[in-house]
Design goal:
It is a single chain. The protein is mainly alpha-helical. The chain is about 45% helix and about 5% strand. It has a two-stranded antiparallel ribbon. The longest helix is centred in the middle third of the chain and has 23 residues. The protein starts with 19 loop residues before the first helix and ends with a strand.
Length: about 180
């Protein structure tokens, strides 16, 4: 199983310490060999692509959405909510951000709970899906509140699921 490097050499004289180049190559080979740990079943511990551990396809419909699409969807939703606030509610200039936040949270909770979509998500062709295939329901509120705190979406795992997705047992997939 383990074969030391020096066992392959057949030199009779004592070996001098490796030079910097040999040491770097040795460390690089060791790092590359150990960069993917293997479980007892012989399968990689880390997936080859986001969503593999969840049973999702690598590309196409139902694959885990990339971060660029998610940021684009939030940007579109935020702009639409700001436009709605400015045109329909017309608050004083100093309160536009607060009203926009309230409208954004409301539309995100309602639309995500009922359909898994918002207008921004629909525009970039992504949706929020639960891992068990059911509607998100009340977990949409938890997910949205965590989304609004900003930090949970920035901390994500190998499947690109932020803390807000893991708390609600969801994943964002492509349409």
């Amino acid at each position: 199983m383990f074969q030391p490097r020096y066992a392959t050499r057949t030199q009779a004289r004592p070996r001098s310490p490796p030079g910097p180049a040999e040491y770097c190559e040795s460390v690089t080979e060791h790092h590359q060999a150990g960069s993917l740990s293997v479980t007892k079943a012989g399968t990689p511990d880390r997936p080859g692509y986001p969503g593999e551990r969840l049973g999702l396809p690598e590309t196409g419909r139902g694959a885990v959405s990339g971060l660029a699409r998610r940021i684009g969807a939030i940007f579109i939703d935020w702009l639409l909510c700001t436009l709605l606030v400015v045109v329909a509610i017309r608050p004083p200039h100093s309160q536009v951000e607060y009203w926009t936040l309230a409208v954004f949270a409301t539309q995100d909770v309602i639309f995500t709970a009922l359909t898994g979509l918002t207008i921004g998500k629909l525009a970039v062709r992504i949706r929020v899906a639960t891992l068990d295939g059911r509607l998100l329901g009340g977990w949409a509120l938890v997910r949205t509140l965590l989304l609004l705190t900003v930090i949970p979406p920035l901390v994500f795992d190998a499947d690109l699921r932020g803390l807000h997705d893991r708390a609600a047992n969801t994943v964002v997939v492509t349409l």
